TrEMBL record, chains A, B:
<dbReference type="InterPro" id="IPR016938">
    <property type="entry name" value="UPF0317"/>
</dbReference>
<keyword id="KW-0456">Lyase</keyword>
<dbReference type="InterPro" id="IPR038021">
    <property type="entry name" value="Putative_hydro-lyase"/>
</dbReference>
<dbReference type="InterPro" id="IPR009906">
    <property type="entry name" value="D-Glu_cyclase"/>
</dbReference>
<protein>
    <recommendedName>
        <fullName>Putative hydro-lyase JOC83_000916</fullName>
        <ecNumber>4.2.1.-</ecNumber>
    </recommendedName>
</protein>
<dbReference type="Pfam" id="PF07286">
    <property type="entry name" value="D-Glu_cyclase"/>
</dbReference>
<comment type="similarity">
    <text>Belongs to the D-glutamate cyclase family.</text>
</comment>
Length: 264, 264
């Protein structure tokens, strides 16, 4: 459940996050500003992961990759410090979730490379602008995310299954949602699946692997988008020595406007 | 000037290219099939170049990156062999164009990584389908390409200026060309410039840096798109020990259909 008002202004929000005083999901906050997923890896893994992203652009659309050792995403958010500016992080050691923390100062190393990956929160504003209601925002929850049975295209040390986010819609709205999100290829784009969750290996919609469960109303169809939490499923399968990520739903808020990523 | 008929079927065309019997520009051949630019680098440069492509998606939209040492683009054209299947290659040694060759068997090394980069030939078919005429195809020439004064976003060892391809259109057609090519973000997408060439550092349209000159008729506006020959300008500036590329206009013909890369 949210404890902060979504009306917080951006400066205030960022200041609270940096001071570990805002530690919840950023969904619905700072509307219009692009939020991104985070993956941090030692340089030894960076080439394989960069290639993994190139081969899996629907789940891992790269917004920016930092220079080695720099915690500053200089191209999209030059004042940010990736060690502090997300509300919550996850530390994966050899594929095991070891810890959740509110900053990663203690984990920082000079050989780390940070990957900023597009997030579906970007197209949620476009969906709302088109009159569609986003259930998890309505219900003040984090978006539900599921590990599917769809294998990603492997690259070097990295392999694993696709993670999807789910939003329920009536049929006509689901169709409109396909149209609207197709215009945002660099933030996951169009859905990867629509309808029967079993077909992609999801057996129980009320038990998401990440995030919260939301209500599926009578007549609604679940619509599934590739999700930037996929690298966390990949970490579990591929077991790199260290992978630091955002906690699902707890994103970096960049300086770039969502509309920047829209085609047409 | 073309010497082969554009009506050659794909099997025949590929067979001729593999046997070094087709050595001209592939522009206008195999309509509907995606053609790609090629960059081959030793593994030591691969991370920096992959990052360069990520930071410069308009000029270097990656279609595929091969596994280290493999000349086979297994995801898009699994029967192809990148050592033989382009009509002409360029060998850059420390930034100097050392040689043009029709196959690169003699240059192959076990540590080479190949980058397939989207090509504007893909959207040319869409332009033609929209009733626009492509001057360099009309005039049976290679597309004119120019090195601009626009710096690319650097990455590690790689920096240099953007290369653009140019097509002249009347104003109404230029507007339509922007609309049509916007739908193809993964093959350079919308133009980077329209009108006055001087504004992007091009002083003489009749002297392209790559390809052929084409006629600019009264009332026509030159329209400029980011070009996959940019890595060759980058090679000249960055001077890697070895970079093998396609010769401008002499592309790999993949199995993927152009329409695959269209948004909406």
């Amino acid at each position: 459940m949210k404890t902060m008002s979504r009306k917080l202004n951006l400066v205030e929000l960022r200041s609270l996050i940096r001071r570990n005083q805002f530690t919840q999901s950023t969904s619905g906050f700072a509307p219009g500003h692009t939020q991104v997923n985070l993956v941090i890896l030692p340089k030894a893994y960076a080439y394989d992961f960069l290639l993994f992203c190139q081969r899996n652009p629907k789940s891992c659309p790269l917004i920016e990759v930092t220079d080695i050792g720099s915690p500053v995403p200089k191209l999209t958010t030059p004042h940010a410090d990736l060690r502090f500016d997300l509300p919550k992080y996850r530390i994966y050691k050899k594929g095991i979730l070891a810890e959740e923390v509110h900053d990663i100062e203690a984990y920082w190393q000079e050989d780390l490379v940070s990957f900023l990956i597009g997030c579906s929160f970007t197209f949620e504003q476009a969906l709302i602008d088109n009159g569609l209601s986003i259930r998890h925002i309505e219900e003040d929850r984090n978006v539900p995310m599921y590990i599917t049975n769809i294998p990603c295209e492997p690259a070097g040390a990295f392999q694993g299954n696709l993670v999807v986010s789910m939003r329920p819609f009536l049929a006509a709205d689901a169709i409109r949602a396909v149209e609207v999100t197709s215009r945002f290829p660099s933030v996951h784009g169009s859905p990867v699946h629509i309808g029967n969750p079993e077909q992609i290996g999801i057996h129980n919609l009320s038990q998401p692997d990440f995030g919260d469960t939301v209500t599926l109303k009578d007549g609604e169809i679940p619509v599934f988008w590739a999700c930037g939490v996929t690298p966390q499923s990949v970490a579990m399968s591929s077991k790199p020595d260290l992978m630091i990520t955002h906690a699902p739903g707890h994103m970096l808020i960049t300086d770039v406007k969502d509309s920047h990523y829209s085609i047409l």
